[in-house]
């Protein structure tokens, strides 16, 4: 708290020594206009703001300023093209400016975000179009592999391509197929229905090499030699057999007579036995030749069957092998054809031998390599390979389909990588924008919370105004901290008040706001609150002047914290503040002598008597009753009643209570309520001259009765 001011050197104060003046918690600075009240207030304010505390004697280390003057009042009200509005002051401008700046930044960020999202959408669209192209090219090949499944555009489209396949990590693993591999996969068709092929097994032909060797030996043998060979165990018997055969062969020469004894050769029993033996050998030899012929004929039959088998099964369309099947088949058919020729040649030699059994110079020249080529394992191995593949064919087809899908993706990996890079890049930018937007929006939320608190305090202003002053004026919110003024019309409906407030109403509203602002801040500040009210009763009629004094006294001056300086030039204001706060206040009168201001501390304050003048003005109005005079005396009715109440009652804060007590005290019938008197005082309603005259007459009667009661002494 400021106890003393050592010296005042400001405007009309010329190094004025004020060290002898001691200030109280409530200080009333009284003086006529132009005497230096505002100069003293601004001097204190400026030095506090500049932290120039050396000129003061204080009991506090710091101060928090709350300053009310005409500039403060005017700063509260803001006008736009449509209507007058109330604009919350005290840093709200900076808060709104800050919010507007943040909102502009948010708008720019959102615009930038929209552009980034457009780029992301473009990249995604290009990627989607690329996926559609990949799907179309893939489907064209897949339709050849599996025509049943991939026969419509819907069978494989962009939605079937997993986005995971297009990620940078996955797509880098895919490779483009070589031309040969690609063509090979295309040739494997799911609907060809490849079957297991039963291998061809030779029966006779597989023994043909051994058969050729045996027939070659047989062709060099004769039945005769075979028969004689039976007697080789005994030389004499062998010679005898040879002789017998020789005789038999020469029997025609001998005319079937034995050259030794002349007997008929056919009748010789030894010969019969030898003939019988010879015939048996011959028969067996011929049978053996027949069997050999059958063997070779059966081999030819088998080769014919083998030819049919090759032509039916060993073809490209039925085999799942990569070799040149047609070429190999033709090669084997040629081997078979040559082999058949060789075998027929052998059969011809057998027939010749059968005609000449004892001819021993028959020789065959056969190429066994032909038979070996046919009997090798090449064909069988290829069939086995086919059969193994056939069992995994469907699985291979599915794997090939995946290879084809990856093949077309891999062909576009550079474009996919480009789009992925753009999308990732723009998404990172978008993520950063979202982070900044989140911070900005949080800031807006914090500001809105502050504004909400201010809105609540503004509602308190409406509440105070209704309770203490007017119930026909309110403020309706139209935006952040902006309120439009509304009034209540004669139909009891609210309408926008385009012309705003009168100066007196502005004073009331600004005082109420200033008070509520102070009350909302006092709990937060640690310094000593220093409150300056420079002429707070400006442009007010008597009734509202009293209300403001009562309001300030009740709401501000009764606070436990703070030091107050109230500057006024109005005697009644000074008097009423003095009466309401006599225990904790001091009155200082400021006067100017020879253009220099001085300060005098008053021990007391005596109000000049203007009661008589007011009473005469009311009587004059009753006498003439001019309509236009009603405006002049509208404030006099309550004013003169308040003067009377000040005489009889100590506590005059509540006019209604004082009014009722006054009538009761002097046993006066209440023709009008206190509100009726105040409605007249407001001057807001349609003026009814007769009604005003009757109210004035009632007040004059009250004065006369009290005067008579007091023997003419007031």
Automatic annotation (TrEMBL):
This is AAA family ATPase. Transmembrane segments: none annotated. InterPro entries: CR006_AAA, P-loop_NTPase. Pfam families: AAA_13. Residues 10-676 form the Protein CR006 P-loop domain. PANTHER family: ABC TRANSPORTER ABCH.3. Keywords: Coiled coil. Residues 106-140 form a coiled coil.
